[in-house]
Amino acid sequence: DADIGDGRRAETKLHWNLNGTLDWIEGPPNHDGDRYRTSYGYDPIAQTYVTSVTDSHGYVSTAEYDPRFCEAISTTDVNGNVTRRKLDAFARLERLAGPYDALGAPTGRIV
């Protein structure tokens, strides 16, 4: 709760999954009483890594993780643009490919 003046308060709501991860967050209502909500999806194995984020407008972004290192290896933004990462055996970034590139011909390569 936050005091926004004239005796009004702005309330942000948070909902947690049974395992302690954040399920969704909902901001205070606007002048029409609508609230902006962001919901989180998690990986099916560890149920720890955020694999999707969906908002009130239906926009979705996603991520895929390398479970060995707990690092994102692919992210997709709300426009469908995919960024891919290749990690070496020590989880260091080796290659980075932007939306118009591939890991075989990456945007960036670390040597």
List the helices and strands and how they pair.
Elements lengths: L1 E4 L2 E3 L2 E4 L5 E5 L10 E6 L7 E6 L4 E7 L4 E6 L5 E6 L5 E5 L10 E2 L2
Antiparallel strand pairs: 1-2, 3-4, 4-5, 5-6, 6-7, 7-8, 8-9, 9-10, 10-11
Describe the protein's architecture and organization.
The protein has 111 residues and is an all-beta fold. The protein is built from no helices and 11 strands. It has strands at 2-5, 8-10, 13-16, 22-26, 37-42, 50-55, 60-66, 71-76, 82-87, 93-97, 108-109. The strands form 2 sheets. A 9-stranded antiparallel β-sheet has the order 3-4-5-6-7-8-9-10-11, with no helix packed on it. A two-stranded antiparallel ribbon has the order 1-2. β9 (82-87) and β10 (93-97) form a beta hairpin. The mean pLDDT is 92.
Low-confidence regions: none
**Rg, nearest Å:** 19 Å
Q: Tell me the number of strands.
A: 11
Largest sheet: 9 strands, antiparallel
Query: Can you give the helix content as a percent range?
Result: under 10%
Structural class: mainly beta
Summed over residues and divided by their number, the pLDDT gives a mean of 92
Alpha plus pi helix count: 0
**Overall body shape:** elongated
Provide tags for this entry.
9-stranded antiparallel β-sheet; 0% helix; single chain; elongated; mainly beta; two-stranded antiparallel ribbon; 111 residues
Short description:
0% of the residues lie in helices and 49% in strands. By secondary structure, the protein is mainly β. 3% of the residues are buried.
